[in-house]
């Protein structure tokens, strides 16, 4: 099996009638994802993707009519936190929020509502997740993947594609690849994903791709040292040359008060038994060095 | 976005927090006039503080006392124009010097790990809180606001008692709630009062009183929320934003100027940081961080190239594009257009993979661009090219 997305995924796309929603929905379906519904308030009763997907006014309607269990959100920043809360409250189990540029304070109540509903939120400002050969939710290009046993978790978009492509080129396949998002407040952390990978029988090795800012990589490293001691673990950290006090594109990528540096993360990961790559292209080789045979 | 102390104080004052009066002076004469008003009103001396967006002003000599108008003018003349960590001081804040009985620290921040607003306080104010966190972590009081309801009265009271502010409970509760209110009102990432101080004052009847007041203020605003606070855009300090950073921001690009010689143009923030890191690893120094964003068109690429080339130190340019939403051939067309317009000949190494990479490769080959297959190779070639230029 894989985690978060797979053959059981019945996808609802919030914002399916927008330009981004339409473009990426087509790409997701082409990859094999089952898209059962779209939601655009005011367009209920219409269809999307050339008449093949019913559009509903509310997430509740969409779940009742189609049995959707996963949502992918392409709603603009002003409405995205509300879309997250609507999905969680209506009963969606796994919510991917792709939207970039949501004010951090707007995500605090949204994350709390998701927690109270017992749902899981990935993102915001994330590229989504792919379980190669099965399904993808989000915007990761399907072409970078190959089926295999490495679980990949990252805070980035294109850096993830770069790393995964390097693995695929070296015949190192993936169980599931997940981008958790580059914002300061995200629904799911590195540690949460490592827990899911630890329980997944298809995942035999871990690649963690972090960047400066916050201490989520350090927290994940400490957990992995204890719970993932016996499987190959490899990491890459972006931002070794980033100056302090500047937001490096991602809202969450900032070194403040001397905390959140690349050096701190590399040290924590190495202490936890990760091999840390100096370039994304070294990841497949290090996986082999760490004993990955998939 | 960082804002100056004087602007941060204005935001706190607007939210009802106790902030002693101040004036901003751009010239020694203005500082003298401000000091005169304050001294005539009965203050024994004034404090003159450099207004710069970097920490450590005091240590750098940017905060001084003056007890006469002559001295205030002299001190202001010394501070205005002073260089603090590479920033030239262009203005000072002038305020009555407080008679401080005790200093505290109080702040509200976005706690990324807990995904809540965190209130932090310490009875060791006036010093760097990062140092307190290292030396005496137990001296820092932490309370989270409720994620749905905000900071409740009882939470603010518990916090005030834990800080040892029982003697000023009402004021401390009002300030704690005011910090969270300020944060929510303006979408701030950080609202910090250091020091928060008990000061001795004389009331109208001439009796000595003690009051809890905000003597300094630091506020940083969430860039993602600025579109819904257009009035806060006026607080962006043009004196401290690099002109290239501003031009890029207005063009919808994320650009940060650095000190090196190799210009970088990349799509995606994580990949842009990685590209800088690999330039450094290959023995070079990146000249900038630049994320052209997803789905960038030819014009945006050309604009990005103009901004990179405006830096005279740039001796080579590395373009690294992993096409997902972004189409490689669009980027190639933008590069060809930009090179046709460029006024100085800087070697360029281009790597484009992903969506429409084959079309991009054909365009680049016809236009005789130097290309690279892997990111590591691209970085090495760009570093070598920059040395060739320098030699």
What this model shows, in words?
The complex is a heterodimer of chains A (294) and B (391). Chain A is of the alpha/beta class. Chain A folds into two domains: 11-122, NAD(P)-binding Rossmann-like Domain (Rossmann fold); 140-289, Succinyl-CoA synthetase domains (Rossmann fold, 3-Layer(aba) Sandwich). Chain A is built from nine helices and 14 strands. Chain A has helices spanning 19-31, 59-66, 80-90, 104-117, 158-169, 190-198, 216-227, 262-271, 283-289, and strands spanning 11-14, 35-39, 47-48, 53-56, 70-73, 94-97, 120-122, 128-131, 135-138, 147-154, 174-179, 205-211, 233-238, 275-276. Chain A is globular, with a radius of gyration of 18 Å. By secondary structure, chain B is of the alpha+beta class. Chain B folds into three domains: 1-20 and 99-239, D-amino Acid Aminotransferase, Chain A, domain 1 (2-Layer Sandwich), CATH 3.30.470; 21-97, 2-Layer Sandwich (Dna Ligase, domain 1), CATH 3.30.1490.20; 242-390, Succinyl-CoA synthetase domains (Rossmann fold, 3-Layer(aba) Sandwich), CATH 3.40.50. In chain B, 36% of the residues lie in helices and 26% in strands. In chain B, helix 2 (28-40) packs antiparallel against helix 3 (69-79) and helix 10 (328-341) runs parallel beside helix 11. At the A-B interface, helix 4 and helix 5 of A face helix 8 of B.
């Amino acid at each position: 099996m894989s985690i978060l997305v797979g053959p059981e995924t019945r996808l609802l796309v919030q914002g399916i009638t927008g330009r981004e929603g339409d473009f990426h929905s087509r790409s997701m379906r082409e990859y094999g994802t089952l898209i059962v519904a779209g939601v655009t308030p005011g367009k209920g009763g219409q269809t999307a993707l050339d008449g093949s997907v019913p559009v509903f006014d509310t997430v509740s309607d969409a779940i009742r009519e189609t049995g959707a269990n996963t949502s992918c959100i392409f709603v603009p920043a002003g409405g995205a936190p509300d879309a997250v809360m609507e999905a969680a409250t209506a009963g969606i189990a796994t919510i991917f929020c792709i939207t970039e540029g949501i004010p951090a304070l707007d995500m605090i109540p949204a994350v709390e509502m998701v927690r109270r509903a017992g749902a899981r939120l990935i993102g915001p400002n994330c590229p989504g997740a792919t379980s190669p050969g099965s399904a993808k939710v989000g915007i990761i290009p399907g072409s970078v993947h190959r089926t295999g046993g490495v679980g990949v978790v990252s805070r980035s978009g294109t850096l993830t594609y770069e790393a995964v492509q390097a693995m695929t080129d070296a015949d190192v396949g993936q169980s599931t690849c997940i981008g958790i998002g580059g914002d300061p407040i995200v629904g799911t952390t590195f540690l949460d994903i490592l827990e899911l990978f630890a329980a997944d029988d298809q995942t035999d090795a871990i690649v963690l791709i972090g960047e400066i800012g916050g201490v989520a990589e350090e927290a994940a490293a400490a957990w992995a040292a204890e719970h993932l001691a016996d499987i190959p673990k490899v990491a890459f950290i972006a931002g070794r040359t980033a100056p302090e006090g500047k937001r490096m594109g991602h809202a969450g990528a900032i070194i403040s008060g001397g905390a959140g540096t690349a050096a701190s993360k590399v040290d924590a990961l190495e202490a936890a038994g990760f091999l840390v790559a100096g370039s994304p292209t070294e990841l497949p080789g290090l996986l082999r060095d760490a004993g990955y045979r998939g | 976005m960082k804002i100056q102390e004087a602007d941060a104080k204005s935001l706190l004052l607007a939210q009802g927090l106790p902030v002693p009066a101040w004036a901003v002076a751009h010239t020694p004469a203005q500082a003298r006039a401000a000091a005169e008003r304050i001294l005539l009103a009965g203050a024994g001396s004034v404090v003159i503080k450099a207004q710069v967006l970097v920490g450590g002003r005091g240590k750098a000599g940017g905060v001084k006392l003056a007890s006469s108008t002559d001295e205030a003018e002299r001190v202001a003349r010394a501070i205005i124009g002073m260089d603090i960590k590479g920033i030239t001081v262009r203005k000072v804040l002038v305020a009555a010097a407080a008679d401080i009985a005790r200093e505290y620290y109080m702040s509200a921040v976005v706690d990324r790990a807990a995904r809540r607003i965190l209130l932090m306080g310490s009875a060791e104010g006036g010093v760097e809180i990062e140092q307190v966190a290292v030396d005496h972590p137990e001296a820092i009081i932490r309370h989270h606001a409720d994620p749905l309801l905000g900071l409740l009265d009882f939470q603010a009271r518990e916090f005030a008692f834990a800080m040892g502010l029982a003697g000023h409970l009402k004021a401390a509760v009002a300030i704690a709630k005011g910090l969270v209110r300020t944060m929510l009102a303006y979408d701030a990432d950080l609202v910090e009062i250091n020091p928060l101080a008990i000061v001795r004052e004389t009331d109208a009847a001439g009796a000595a009183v003690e009051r809890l007041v905000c003597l300094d203020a630091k506020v940083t605003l969430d860039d993602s929320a600025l579109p819904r606070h257009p009035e806060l855009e006026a607080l962006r300090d043009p004196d401290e934003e690099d002109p290239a950073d501003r031009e890029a921001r207005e063009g919808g690009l994320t650009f940060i100027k650095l000190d090196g010689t190799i210009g970088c143009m990349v799509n995606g923030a994580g990949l842009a940081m990685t590209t800088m890191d690999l330039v450094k690893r290959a023995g070079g120094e990146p000249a900038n961080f630049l994320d052209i964003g997803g789905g960038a068109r030819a014009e945006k690429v050309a604009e990005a190239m103009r901004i990179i080339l405006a830096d005279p130190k740039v001796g080579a340019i590395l373009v690294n594009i992993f096409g997902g939403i972004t189409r490689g051939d669009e980027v190639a067309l933008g590069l060809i257009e930009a090179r046709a317009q460029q006024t100085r000949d800087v070697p360029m190494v281009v790597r484009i993979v992903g969506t429409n990479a084959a079309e991009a490769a054909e365009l680049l080959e016809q236009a005789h661009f130097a290309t690279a297959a892997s990111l590591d190779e691209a970085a090495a070639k760009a570093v070598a090219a920059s040395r060739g230029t320098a030699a």
